[in-house]
Structures are given as C-alpha cells and as structure tokens.
Amino acid sequence: MLDLENIDAYYGESHILHGVSLSVGNGEVVCLLGRNGAGKTTTILTVMGYLHPRRGTIRFNGRDIGGLPPYAVARLGFGFVPQEREIFPSLSVRENLTVFARGGRNGFWTLQRVFELFPSLRARERNLGFQLSGGEQQMLSIARALMLNPVLLLLDEPSEGLAPMIVQEIIDVLKHLKGEGLAILLVEQSLRVALAVADRHHVINKGAICFTGGAAELENSESVLRNYLSV
Ligand SMILES: Nc1ncnc2c1ncn2[C@@H]1O[C@H](COP(=O)(O)OP(=O)(O)OP(=O)(O)O)[C@@H](O)[C@H]1O
Ligand SMILES: [Mg+2]
C-alpha cells in the first residue's frame, strides 16, 4: 500500500535521507529501527508531507503522493502519532479525541470503542491533557489517531521514555490493532517493541537503510544489533 523508493530528503541544505526505500503492505506491520539521529523521524515526516523528497518516489496504492501537503496526506487515511505526542494540554481527554475526529472518515473507531481499547483514558475522560502521565499521553495520542479511522497508522517511538509495564500496554494495543488488520509503520529504538509486533524490519543508520529482514534474521544479525542499534 505504501512504497518509498530511493528517497533523498533535506532540511535546508542538510542532506539527511540517502536513498531510503521501504514498503508497507495491506495489514502489515513494518518497523523502522535506528539510533538517535539516524533519520527515523525525518522518514516519517517525509511520508506525512512535512518534508518533500528531492529525489525518489512515495506511492500510496500506486499513486505518487510525494508532493502532497500534510493535510492532504492525512486525508488519504494516514493516522500519525508524532514523537512529541502533541496532546492539547488545556483540552480534556474527550476533547482531544473529538476535536479532529469530525474531519476523519466514518468507520469502526468511535469514542466508545477507543475507551474500550484504553480503559485508563475513560477513567480520565474529563482530565486535561497536561494532567496526564507520559503513558496516558501516549495512549491518548494513539487513540486520537484511531478516531480518524486510518487505513495506515504511523507511530514515532511510542515506547520512548515509558516504564516497562506501560510499554507492554502499548505492545498489547499494537498487537490488537494488527489483529484487526490495520497496516502500521512503526518507528522504534526499542528492539523489544519491534520484535513483539512487527512482521518486517528496516534498520536505518545515517539516513540510509542498512538492514531489511524478518524478526529471526534481525535477532541473528549480531553486527546489525551491535553497530546500528543500542543493544
Ligand atoms: N529541523 C532540522 N534541521 C536540521 N537538521 C535536523 C532537523 N531535524 C533533525 N535534523 C537532523 O537530521 C538527522 C536525523 O534526525 P531525525 O530526527 O530524523 O532522527 P531520529 O532517528 O528520529 O532520532 P531520535 O531517535 O533521536 O528521534 C539528525 O542528524 C538531526 O540532527
Ligand atoms: Mg525521532
């Protein structure tokens, strides 16, 4: 469904991505792994239209989307969970969930259903964004993306800075969504999260993909784990 081919991306004159290729098929969970500064967020921002590739193509179901602005990419059904979570601090949990939802497509996900998936958010329904813990903010950011009824979910390091127990909750949610057939592009530094949920893995280093393969292959690639990931 999503195909990146040979993407070069820049911030101004800084050349960050060098020939990045990756794809996500229908119902597939693909993980992009890499250390700090490797180019993970840049890749996801390029897909979402915040940066435009100077070289290469981004296709969605065969259509070239590389020149679209972010709102048009979102309208294709790309649900984006940014690294900074970007919860509205002065809106309630319920307001955070409903503020954009009307612009999304109708479908499975409703307030009721996201509260079933995230019972802790239901309990905090009337709390304001700034009153939430880091884990709750992350859940809310994922829940908000689901309210748009995405066809593809893109998450930028959802486990970052969270306690192991909360990370497990995130893993369980992602597994559940995968079970429902949602396609996911997951950016992670955590090998634990990657191996628990993804079908295929790409490792990025200095803006270039240096490994592509399945879970078993990744676990057995000692040099990749040692050189390009923090394990
Ligand atoms: N706005 C920007 N302007 C210039 N350079 C940037 C900008 N944002 C990021 N960079 C640089 O681009 C490179 C890739 O950054 P990116 O944010 O994509 O890394 P990342 O893999 O997401 O890292 P992290 O795990 O820390 O989030 C880094 O060298 C970073 O310093
Ligand atoms: Mg990042």
Q: Which geometry do the CA atoms define?
A: globular
- What is the percentage of strand-forming residues? 25-35%
CATH architecture of the largest domain: 3-Layer(aba) Sandwich
Helix coverage percent of residues? 25-40%
Helix- and strand-based class? alpha/beta
Describe the structure.
- It is built from ten helices and ten strands.
- Strand 1 and strand 2 (14-24) form a beta hairpin.
- The protein has 231 residues and is α/β, with parallel strands linked by helices.
- It has helices spanning 40-47, 70-75, 93-98, 111-117, 119-123, 134-146, 164-179, 191-197, 215-220, 222-228; strands at residues 2-11, 14-24, 29-33, 55-60, 63-64, 78-81, 152-156, 183-188, 200-205, 208-213.
- It has a six-stranded mixed β-sheet, with helices on both faces.
- It has two domains: 1-77 and 151-163 and 182-231, Rossmann fold; 85-150, no CATH class.
- The structure holds adenosine-5'-triphosphate and magnesium ion.
Secondary-structure map with pairings?
Blueprint: E1 2-11, E2 14-24, E3 29-33, H1 40-47, E4 55-60, E5 63-64, H2 70-75, E6 78-81, H3 93-98, H4 111-117, H5 119-123, H6 134-146, E7 152-156, H7 164-179, E8 183-188, H8 191-197, E9 200-205, E10 208-213, H9 215-220, H10 222-228
Parallel strand pairs: 3-8, 3-9, 6-7, 7-8
Antiparallel strand pairs: 1-2, 1-4, 4-5, 9-10
The chain binds adenosine-5'-triphosphate (ATP) and magnesium ion (MG).
